[in-house]
Please model this.
Amino acid sequence: MIEVKKVNKSFTLFNQNNAKITVFKNLNFEVNPGEIVALKGPSGIGKSSILKMIYGSYIIDKGAIIINNKNIATLSAQEILKLRKTSIGYVSQFLKVIPRISALDVIMEPLLNSGDNKNNAYKKSIKLLKDLNIEKNLWHLSPLTFSGGEQQRINIARGFIKDLPYLLLDEPTASLDSRNRDIIINLIKAKSNRGVSIIGIFHDEYSRKKLNVREIDLNIETKH
Amino acid sequence: MIIPLLKVTNLSKSYDNIVGCKNISMSLYPGEVLGIVGESGSGKTTLINCLSGNLEPDRGKIIFNTNNKETDFLNISESEKRKFIRTDLAFVHQNPRDGLRLNVSAGGNIGEKLMSVGYRHYGNIRSLATKWMNKVEIDKSRIDDLPITFSGGMLQRLQIAKNLITSPNVIFMDEPTGGLDVSVQARVLDLIRSLVNELNLTVIIVSHDLAVIRLLADKMIVMKNGTVIESGLSDQVLEDPQQEYTQLLVSSVLHV
Model:
């Protein structure tokens, strides 16, 4: 379960006349195992910021975010690294990789880093690449040369390859055609059926409906 | 409870009246990569020179915990310190010419390092050297060539092989991709990253290139005027910097 309790977040931009931007005050919600929660609201309202706070990429100014009985707001850097490795998958909006590394290696890396053996990691990654409908001739190429939709699917593969109890998805279906969107929706459903707690940002009504999400409207949640 | 591999407390070093680094405290855990960023003169190099035994700090404590043994780095005899540096630490210089002997063959450079930690059997040394040439993507037919015949990128990869071959516990890297062409940089970065993952290396890397830190480092510290002004997970410091200077650094990066 993920619990977001009385969270405040603001940004101070020192180099722009110390402008202070308040994103949330007193944000509360929770996500149960197997549940898919969709964050809703216009762009700029802080949907991605929530995912980043849960992942530890953004500082939590006030309040608590509890995962595995641990409060992200008070964990040390190495504790967060460990929690990410064992528990939290994060699919960002854009793929960030080093040139030269093949799509297959990009996907295998999280498994190898957690001590999975090469053969096993290879088999799992190949299966996922096939499930994701990525053509075989692309597997050994760097994803930096791929189309937007292909990059997106490699990014999803990297986030989905491990069996982790929590998944954070930042617009996972954004740049996909309808066929590939359905493939991703089914993968997300499968994760949810296995009890994974999922928080996502889904731009389209279709995905939200198909995934049977519980919506959290940030317009309402953050107006106090 | 995991014990930090390296624990630094209140480390300071000045040059006469000029502050090198001041009251630095930090911990590094096994398998972590720590990035150090900051402008020229901020004390990055002073700090890693103190930690790697190239400089004697004025004050502070440096404790290494390697092979289940605690080493109080600033309170051991000179000979113990030299031995510790040889067996447990490695230093990759920005300019590979500083870390290699150019009038000794490539294989000789690597072999010398092995001999310094006790290897004597010529056949073993040569086969290990060949294996490492391969690991850093240098053709093994070049093993008897002098480094002066190597390109900049090859030299850097040779220096990396020489440093990693003895399985050191902590590896220091000072701008390892600093002097290289952009195309060569990506290759060396990729190599460092795959070796870090494969061998679970613990690394402290100094760079003024935030992209290098983002790709390689788990944690980072930002230095200014000899002190640490901000530290944390690399993605957190780069995406949600809390200090004015760090915000300036991050916002000054050009995106292509």
